[in-house]
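Checklist before submission:
- one chain only
- standard amino acids only
- sequence pasted in full

Submission:
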Amino acid sequence: MNSFLLALLNSLDIGLLLFIIAVGLNIVFGVLGVINFAHGALYMLGAYLAYAGIVGLGLPFWVTLLLAPLVVALLAVAIDRGMLHFIYGREIADSLLLTFALLLILNESIRLIWGNGIHTVEPPWPLQGTIAMPGGLRYPSYSAFVLLVGLLTLLGLWLLFSRTRLGKIMRAAAQDPEMAQTLCINTRRVITATFAFGAWLAALGGVVAAPMRAIDPGMGDKIIIESFIVVVIGGLGSFPGALAGALVLGLIHGLGGRYLPQLDLILPFVGMALVLLVRPHGLMGARRV
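Returned file contents:
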């Protein structure tokens, strides 16, 4: 029983971390209609900036947690203004090709700066131990912190999209950009802010993941695959779908990794295929025409 409870906690931990990353991808698609292949590279850049700040510059983890996502968001503004601006409204294949090119550029740039080696980051001092739980379980403090960050991100996004004017403007621009422009909403700024916000979420996930995952040039490729699985399971462009898809994939990894480790690599794809057989547009997705 304790083993099963621990597997469930690990599943929730994995799922909420995936949610932080994948929801940025889903928000960008929902508002911009762009499937951002470079999203995984932005996540990886966040992790490398965490390594550079903590190990290279000796900055506290908490300072890096604030600064690294901001740096990546500013880079995303430059990318949007300098490149993506020219392909909005065109065929989706154009955005796929451009963002794939951005993925390659960012990957090779990271290799040039930090090399091909594997880097690690220690959790901050207050989060290096374990937490005693009922039944004699010991749960890593940093994993509990990841759960907290995921829940706070979920709450913050819900408040943003349901309670703030900015969130309502983003929703309006996603549902009917022409009408939003008619109502004097600066959709150009909304698009830039949305892309930067998606990049900020990706980098936030990278910084949070840095103390618990190896930092290497292949980590972005792995996470973009998992993020696509999340958004496909949940439904492209759906905020609740991103949460549902992340939790489903978290359960697949957490329970499958513990009880069926030999199938851990293929279980996410099996789960995605089963969902699509029943719900071709994802658990909470809607048909796009």
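Reviewer check: The longest strand covers residues 130-133.
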